[in-house]
Every structure is written in structure tokens, then in C-alpha cells.
Amino acid sequence: MKKKIKALVNRLRSAVRQHPVEVAMSVVFSLAGCVHYESGYEYSFLVGPLIYFPMLFLATYTLNGLMRQEGTKGAVGLRVLYYLSAFFFIPFLWMDDKAIWTPTYLVSLVVVQLVYLISGWKRDNDDFVRVALRYLKAVLSAGLLAGIAYLLAISVNASVRYIFEIWEDSYRWFYTEAAYLIFICGMSLLFLMFNQEKEERDEGSNRLFEVLLNYVLSPVLLIYAVILYLYFIKVAVLWSLPKGAVAYIVVSFISATFVLKGCQVFLSKRYYDWFYKQASWVVLPALAMYWIGTYYRINQYGFTEPRVYLVAVGGILTGLVVLFLTKRWGRYLYAACLAVVLLSVVTYIPGITAKDIERISQEGRENEPGNERGYDRNSYMQIDNKYPLDLSGYRTLVPVTGYKNDDCMYAVNNNDTLQLFGKNDEVLYTKDIPSFWEGQLKNAGVNPSDTIPESAYPDLLVLDMDSAKLVFQSIHLYRPSADSAYTVSYMIPAFYLEKKK
Question: In this structure, are residues 318 and 113 in contact, taking their beta carbons and an 8 Å threshold?
């Protein structure tokens, strides 16, 4: 036991020594998350860097690996870039909240991991898969241990609070800040410890790995192959079109086929070589269905952002299949390069991003709703409350639910009437919704027929009463046509503020 602890400490020291910038980033970003929480989420400029931390961390880690494998001349420039990568987060400080949870985020997460796998430039398929498995094992192990540590921390905190009756109101603080410290700092350090080259030679040598591939995954893959072949025969006989959701099954099937094909080299008993050696030919019918369905839907309805990525993924899969038709070009490295190029082109290059292609495609269609049919793209509008509120002059803040609740205040908006009820079901406010909304617009200085500017949102989300305020979490609006005024669809209340007497 003592030797194992010593080996673990030595590995931690080695990780810190070899990855100083990554360790510094992990510590700083975890503390930044705690500061963000302590500020009441007022430091909105921290949201972008915190959300994109995995990509920033892996980019720095990739530069570190390149620096250590380059020659003397190349290493000097990469060393400078490596240390500068600690400041790659700066552009993300100005990121709009709406720009974070988008397809760009998911694609960036995929691209940065592919770039890491490419950075070693392993042309040999066995070496490439070995590095990929080592990376996957490190991520899963670090995530598992971090998750266990977090659950243990919560358990200890809950036990102390219950037994000693202290810190009764601090559990949210503890849960949030523990998550930042453990999952940003702790998980990153664990990843650096696990993802070391000396572990690489042992990948795939355990019994569980062999049982999983030979007796679980490969048989399931064969079943899927039979299902897809039968479906392909049905489509051909009935001369019909593939169902839309089949595209997801095909993507999963082809991806799994080539992933498991790469893992076969690590097995002592390879029962399915006959299947994986002909993988490119086996998946061709499924790939044909994929492209037929994709072409039909784009031809009928034009490009949308998801369909652009559907085409990009189809291009990657087609390239993968074509590459592995020959021994010379059948390299996972080349397929990963192709994936990075195609995904980056439709995500980062202005003018040809997935959003741009969607806009150009839909605007150019004869049945485009925004042209001939006078369709209003902004017929629905949602105003969310993310604005500061002056609490001076108020003594009580009471949560308000959007449904009847015996334990707290609630507001309901149905039958074209907004009603606010107290804890004892007494009516504190009632008004028909059209009059309510007209009053809100008037208080915000907005004409009902005008476009609602964002500067008016904070006033629209607060209902001023004689001695109190009702603050809404969000208000959802609708207008039947572009030249008509917005009306309220429904509202979600947040809390009730009572003035000092």
C-alpha cells in the first residue's frame, strides 16, 4: 500500500513538472468558477472561459505534446506558444451568452480532441488507436474518480450538517464550489496523471476489454448489420425512401464498425476478422441509404444547420470508407484529418458556416416562408430575465410559482387574466392580460405597434404594484403577422418584492 501511494505521488509530481501551464490553468479556472458563484453570477464575462475550459485545456495540452516531440528549432517557437496558450481564454471573455450553447460548442469539442489525436502523427493504425484508447481511458478514469470524490464530499458535508446541525444554509455553496474545484482542477490533474506514454503499451491487454469486444460489441454490430441489410432490401423492393432517423443509425453503425476494426489488433482471439477486413464493402449499402435520404430531404426542404452537419458527417464517413478500400491509404490519421477539415470549414469560416448555408438555402427557395408567404420569422419572442434589479426600499423577497401551491405565493395566467395569490390564497392582483401588457409597454415607453428594443426588457419583466413588485422570470410573446402587435402567450413568475413600511 505504501509503495502504491508513493507511486501515485511520484506520478502526480511528474504530471505537475511536465505540464506547468495546464496545472496553473486548472487551478485558476476552478477558482474563477468559485468567484463567479460567490458574485451571484454577476461576473458574466467568466461564463465563456469556464464553459470552453475543456477545449482551452486540451489545446494547451496538445501544444505541450508537440513541444516535447519537436526538434530544437521547432521546440523554441512551440515553447513560447505553449506558455502563451495560458491566455487563449481572453477572447472568450467577450462571448455573448447566446453564442455559448450552440452547435459550434459541440463541434469545437470534437475538433480539439481530433487535433490532439492527430498531433502525434501516428500513421500506423495500431499506434493511432493505442493513443486514442489511452486518451479515452484517461478521460473516463479521471471523470469516474472525480465523480466519486464529489459524491463523497457531498456525503461528508451532508453528514456533518445533519449530525452537528451547522451550516444549514450553506449546502448550495458547498455543492457548487466543490464541483468547480473537483471537476475543473481535480479531474484535470487526474487526466494528466493517467494519460502518460508509459501506459500506452498496456492498452487493450486486459481480459475485460477482450470479452467486451468479442462477446458484446461485435455481436451487436453484426445484428445491426443484418437489420440494415434487411431494411435496404425493403427500400429497394418497395422503391421507397429511407426514414429520416435511419441516418443516425447509419452514422452509429459505420463509426462503430471502424472503431472496433481498429481495436481488433489488441485481441488475442480475433473471431470477427472476416467481418472487419471487409468493413468498407460491408457498410456500402448503409452509406448509400444515408446519401439517398439526405439528398431527398435537402432537395425537398433545403439546407438547415443540422442538415449541413449531416452532409459534413456523411463526407467524413464516405472518406473513411474510401480510404480503407486500400491498404496504403487506409489510415485513421488521414480520416481524422479529413474530419477536422470538414467540420472546421462549416463551423469557423465566415460565409460558408452551417448557419450561413442555411440562410442562403432557405432565402433562395421559391416556397421560402419569409418571401412569398409573408411568414413572420419573429412571430414568437421570449424575454428572459438576466438583468440586475435594485432592491433598495424593499424588505421582503418571496418566491412565486407559476401554479397553485399551498406553501407559497403563486401567479397564474389563464383565461386571458393574470392573477397573483398570497400564501393564504388571497388575491393580491388581478387584471386581464391585454390591459396588463398594454400597461407594461406604456411604463417601458414602447408603442404597441413598434419593435420591442432590448433596453425595454428589464421594465417589461417587472410589474409595479402599490407597495410591491412582481418580477417575472420570462415572458413569452406571439404575433400572428409581421404588421401586428405582440400579445402575451404565457408568463413565468420569479419572486415578489414587498416595500418597507
Answer: no
Reported as a single tens digit per residue, the pLDDT across 280-327 is 999 999 999 999 988 888 887 788 888 899 999 999 999 999 999 998
How far apart (Å, rounded) are the C-alpha atoms in residues 188 and 30? Answer: 10
Q: Which amino acid appears at position 313 of this protein?
A: V
Q: For 426, which DSSP code?
A: -
In the chain, domain spans? 2-202, 207-363, 380-499
The distance of Cα 396 from the centroid of its chain, to the nearest Å, equals 38
Residue 203 has pLDDT above 60, yes or no: no
Give the CA angle between residues 372, 376, 379 to the nearest 5°.
Answer: 160
| CA neighbor of 289 nearest in space, from 247, 331, 259 | 247
pLDDT digits (tens, 9 = 90+) for 80-129: 999 999 999 999 998 876 667 788 899 999 999 999 999 999 999 999 99
Q: What is the pLDDT of residue 368?
A: 47
CB of 233 within 8 A of CB of 286?
no
Which contacts qualify for 475-478: CB closer than 8 Å, 24 or more apart? 475/382, 475/383, 476/380, 476/381, 476/382, 476/383, 477/380, 477/381, 477/382, 477/383, 477/452, 478/379, 478/380, 478/381
Q: Which three cell numbers stand for residue 488?
A: 402575451
What is the enclosing helix (H) or strand (E) of 488? strand 487-499
The set of cell numbers assigned to 128 is 493511432
Residues 6+ apart with CB under 8 A from 332: 125, 128, 129, 132, 258, 262
pLDDT per position as a tens digit, 238-281: 888 787 778 889 999 999 999 999 999 888 888 999 999 999 99
- Residue 442, CB-side half-sphere exposure with 13 Å CA sphere: 7
Residues 139, 142, 146, 147: is their CA dihedral positive or negative? positive
Question: Mind listing the pLDDT tens digit for each residue in 49-86?
Answer: 999 999 999 999 999 999 887 655 567 788 899 999 99
* 3-state class (DSSP) for residue 337: helix
Any idea which residue has 418566491 for its cell? 399
- CA 95/CA 98 separation, integer angstroms: 8
